[in-house]
Amino acid sequence: MSIEWLATRFIRHIGAAVGLVFVAVTGPAIAAPPVAGAMANFIVHDAPKPAPEVRFDDADGNPLTLSDFAGKVVLVNFWATWCGPCKVEMPGLDALQGELGGARFEVLALSGDRAGMKAILTFYDEIGVLHLKRYVDKTMATHRAFGTKGLPTTVLLDAEGREVGRLVGPAEWDSDDARDLVRYYVERVDK
Q1: Buried b vs exposed e over 82-117: b needs ≥16 C-beta within 10 Å?
Q2: What residues contact residue 189 under an 8 Å CB cut-off, 6+ apart?
Q3: Are the C-beta atoms of 107 and 101 separated by less than 8 Å?
Q4: Strand order in the sheet with 135-136
Q5: How far is 31 from 180, CA to CA, in rounded Å?
Q6: How many whole angstroms separate alpha carbon 99 and alpha carbon 93?
Q7: Which residues pair with 56 in a beta bridge?
Q8: Which of 182, 189, 191, 187 is nearest to 99 (CA)?
Q9: 188, 175 in Cβ contact below 8 A?
Q10: Are 184 and 191 in contact (CB under 8 A)?
Q11: Cα distance between residue 60 and residue 121, in whole Å
């Protein structure tokens, strides 16, 4: 046995021990949210941010707030019927809601149309929306409270109602990448 061989074995054992101590102290590594491919422009915040207190209406004119969605991961999509890119991405949002929507997740497509529900219903009928509920804030106060800079803007809220990230501009919400991103947060609802 050479000194070099002994030194190499000693370094390997020390390195392995240090690695075990690090994992024991810090805990297992938590995977980062998947933001690749179609979701490459989704910006994940370093830490969740409190969502602003906002009010909007459902299809029947009932006032709602984000607390009405407590316990769900919510993908808030800010859009309007006159927004061309919104029209392009809406079928993908509808498909995402159809596939993943339920007790732990909802796409909240929030229109800023001053024309209200009639314009939204016409828009949904024209492009064949089947799964999305209708929500509106004719004042666009909700859009301003979230600091949207353009339409569409999509904000992802965790089950505690905190903003975890956002994407400005249209996206392929029916892509595997979008489903993976949403599932990452939905899988943490019961944990």
Answers
A1: ebeebbebbbbbbbbbeebbeebbbbbbbbbbeeeb
A2: 71, 72, 73, 104, 159
A3: yes
A4: 43-50, 162-168, 153-157, 73-79, 105-111, 135-136, 56-58, 63-64
A5: 12
A6: 10
A7: 64
A8: 182
A9: no
A10: no
A11: 12
pLDDT digits (tens, 9 = 90+) for 14-73: 544 444 444 444 455 567 899 999 999 999 999 999 999 999 999 999 999 999 999 999
- CA 100 to CA 179: how far, in whole Å? 8
- Give 170's DSSP letter: -
Cα torsion 76, 56, 147, 153: sign = positive
| Length of the chain counted residue by residue | 191
Task: Report how far residue 73's alpha carbon sits from residue 80's, in angstroms, rounded to the nearest whole number.
Answer: 22
- Cα–Cα distance measured from residue 131 to residue 129, given in angstroms and rounded to the nearest whole number: 6
